[in-house]
Amino acid sequence: MKVDYSQLSENLYVHHGHVNTGILLDDSKAILIDPSGPTFNVTCAELGISNAENLLFTHHHRDSILNCPIGDNVRIGVPAKEKSWFAEVESFWNDSQYRWHLYNCHPHNLMLAESIRVADTYTDGQQIEWGSALLTVLETPGHTDGSITYLIDVDGQRFAFTGDLIFDEGKIWELYSLQKGQQTSDYHGFLGARDELKESLEKVRQASPTALIPTHGAVMDNPDRAIDTLLERLEDCYDKYVSISALRHYFPHLFSEFEGKPGHMPIREGKPPPEFLRHYGTTWIIISENREAFVMDCGSPNVIKQIQQLQEGGEISDVTQFWVTHYHDDHVNAIPEFQEIFPCETIADSIVAEVITYPKAYRLPCISPAITRVDRVTSDGDSWEWNEFTMTAYHFPGQTYYHGGLLVEGHGMRMFFSGDSFTMAGIDDYCSGNRNLLGADVGYEKCLRLIQELKPTHIFNCHVDVAFDFSDSEIDFMLSTLAEREKCYTELFPWDHANYGMDEHWVRCYPYEQEVDQGGTAQLRVEVTNHSHESRTVTVQPILPAIWGIDIDPKETTIPPKTDGYIDFFIPIPQHISISGRIVVPVDITYNTRPLNQFREAIFVITGG
């Protein structure tokens, strides 16, 4: 078996697998940093390591922890602030706050499937003397809240094992781990951890290391240049985000430093909505000439009360149609109650309908467990008449990929109900988990082209009381900014397209969560979006609990460019083992020869035990 490792100094090596593992030697003994991967033990054998005394981890993500040689005598050391995500990770998987209504994203990705025992925890400034080496711990949050860096002084040099703070010169592994609120929830915090990341990188720089060794990425022998290039790119990327961000309307104080900055789109004034519209919470209501009501979204029981008051006051007679813009909880939480009280036809875009009729199948920001009945599923451009209005439905992947838009024509107006996708300040792409894709005919590029084509007289946002519109020059500016983003964000990641680093769900399990009986069979589909301009091959293997004694063979498929592909698995659930409750099933991914290890997961809820 070919092994890939490099020697940094007489006593320090790096194994290059799907992650980099530091190997600090003292004769046949070793300290290992972020040990992981199926080929790692081969490297240890070649180097004559018979005893790994300590395993040290920079952060809690499972792709840097798997397949590590945990013997009875080895001591495992982890960041003190993340101990529970190593030793008590079941508290994450069994807590509903980490499953539903997800507005905070920390922790949010790549949690361990099962806990491991922890012997030592490390805090800032702690030192470990071992053989001829001295290890110093730096708390360096950013990629995760509790990430640490290990400085190793050995053989007259100093090396920094930085976790996933940086991937390579000017690059990071992915962006969605940096989603963090500063004065709001994480949901509104696009690149919100960038200040922490910057402070951590500067802290590492001040230690004057000879080289940076990331968990993912290349060894960097010019730390200053690598850090400077990354900070410059992050600043540029963030500026291109702020310049057309709808969040400037909601939270102007968060962006006061950018106010009036050249190259940023000015915030438009709103205009009053037509008299036949009502707005309550996140719900818009159209009242026809015959007093029938067309309702859009229902996130709160208060909306139901408001509709009933309109009926009691004689303003409306009955609700005859109901449209769901997207799946977020503040738009769907009260739909089951609404549908009981107003048994009208419910209509939704086909992609929205997939989520709201089967929410357990997804793990997305702001997701609600409320199940919606959908009577009519629309495709792009489907039209129908409702009283004196013509309705035309569109897939509208703006604020979230799972989103619809509705053009309403009547009374001499062309009104576009955009859900949460725009404000007068621009586009609502402030949560990377929503899948705001970059590129031609996807994401906001697709949405803006549609607005450009439809030329609505009024645009409505579910959270904004007034209507607004965009001029042709403003649409052109937003489109050109998105094109610039596609380029600058692609430079930020070690992928051939920005969406791999920005789209947390480019690999996803369907259903994400399912109930299955002991002795039954779970059907699991692993879906992959190929964001590249060329075909890509993906290899997938679900990893079942060792106690089950079942191995699932990997499967492979080739996905054409800019399309979705999938692989189906039929997984037997053992009957002879006493198991019940929530089981985490990680999925090992190799993408176009790049091993990503246990990159995503599904949840099996075992019943009948």
Quickly list its features.
609 residues, 6-stranded mixed β-sheet, alpha/beta
Walk me through what this model shows:
This protein has 609 residues and is α/β, with parallel strands linked by helices. The strands form seven sheets. A seven-stranded mixed β-sheet has the order 1-2-3-4-5-6-7, with no helix packed on it. Helix 11 packs antiparallel against helix 12. The mean pLDDT is 95. Helix content is 20%, strand content 31%.
Number of strands: 33
Distance between the termini: 42 Å
Class from helix and strand fractions: alpha/beta
- Approximate strand percentage: 25-35%
- Any idea what the radius of gyration is? 26 Å
Number of helices: 13
Largest sheet entry: 7 strands, mixed
Poorly predicted spans: none
Strand order of the largest sheet: 1-2-3-4-5-6-7
Shape annotation: globular
Helix content: 10-25%
Question: Whole-number average pLDDT?
Answer: 95
